[in-house]
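Kindly inspect this one:
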Amino acid sequence: MTVLLEVAGLVSGYGSGTVLGGVDLTVGPEEVVAVVGRNGAGKTTLLQTILGIVDRRAGTVCFGGEDLTAASTTAVARAGIGYVPQGRRIFPTLDVDEHLSIARRPGHWTPAAVYDLFPRLAERRHHGGGQLSGGEQQMLAIGRALVGNPRLLLLDEPSDGLAPNLVAEVMALLDRLRSSGMSVLLVEQDLAAALSVADRVAVLDRGTVSFEAPVPGLDRSILEDLLMPV
C-alpha cells in the first residue's frame, strides 16, 4: 500500500512522564484511519505529537516522503497536514469570515468552497464564533482546517457534544472528503461513528497500538472487548 503518513516508534510525553511509548501507524492516500482507545490512552497526544505541539522524544514522522520528525508545527501545516482540535477552539469574538480568512492558504479550498459545503455557515458568516451553535462551531473548525488546503486532516473527537444527527453529518462529510482525494486520521470515542466511515481502525492502549485491522469484515465485538474499562 502506498503510504502518505508514516509514524514509526513515536515516543512523547509531558514533563518527565511518557504518554506514547512507541507508536507505529500509517495512513494511505484517500484513506480514513480511526484511532480509538480508552480515556487516557494517548489519542490526543498522538495527534499533537504528529503536529509538533508535543515534543517528539524518539521515533519518526514522515509525510509524503518528507521527514517531519524535527519539524515545527508551522512546518507540519505547510507540508499539508490540517488539524481540527477537540473542543473546536473557535475564537468567540471573530466572525466566521475572519476565521476562514486568517487560516487560508492557496489551493482548491477557499472560503467560498467552504460556504458551498456548509450553507449554514454562509448564513452565519458575519456572526461571532461565540454566537454559533455547537454544530456550527464544528462546521467552522473543519472549514478552517480545509482552507489551509491539507492533504491529510487530523480530527480529534469531532462528535464531542453533538447530537446524533449531527455526528452522522460529520461522518458523511469525512466520506465526501475522502472521495475528493483527502486522507483523514480520526480520533473518536464514538465507536459506531468511527466504524461508519473508517477504512482501518487502530486501538491505542497505554501508549502503543495494540490492535489494527481493516474495518470491512471486522467483528465489532473484538473492539468492544479491547475498549472495556479495566
